[in-house]
Amino acid sequence: MDQALIIAITDLVAGYRHTPVLKKLNLAVKQGEAVGIAGPNGAGKTTLFKVILGIIAKMQGQIRILGRDMESSQDRAWVRRQIGYVPQQTIPGKLPVSVGDAVLMGRWGTSFGLTRKPN
Ligand SMILES: Nc1ncnc2c1ncn2[C@@H]1O[C@H](COP(=O)(O)OP(=O)(O)OP(=O)(O)O)[C@@H](O)[C@H]1O
Ligand SMILES: [Mg+2]
Hints:
Elements: E1 5-16, E2 19-30, H1 45-53, E3 60-65, H2 73-82, H3 99-105
Antiparallel strand pairs: 1-2, 1-3
Magnesium ion binds at residues 45-46, 88.
């Protein structure tokens, strides 16, 4: 497998209970690449992020994030600590902080703290 890939997803099937939302999804993202995922409401964009973050388990296929196969709960927990995730806002109005600060909030205690700069 290409070692430069930080996300390598092959024939992924994932969803909720017995309802697959992602059906044989393939995605390869290289280090340093910026990728936008577009699709209609309910297409499965958030579901894809939940699988990448290890919040929900896959039903079928292979998923390799930052070199880990996400097969064990330890690997999923490790991956979860490496990734900053800003979920969709459900409260109306503007968040009174900058985009950069909003992103950093989720990294407090994981990638930086009182004496450590964010990585
Ligand atoms: N917790 C859940 N339990 C059961 N079904 C769910 C759950 N969350 C989402 N779904 C269903 O999975 C499908 C994909 O939803 P998902 O939230 O991934 O879509 P999305 O592309 O992020 O949509 P949006 O553009 O509205 O954010 C939808 O049919 C949705 O109803
Ligand atoms: Mg969504």
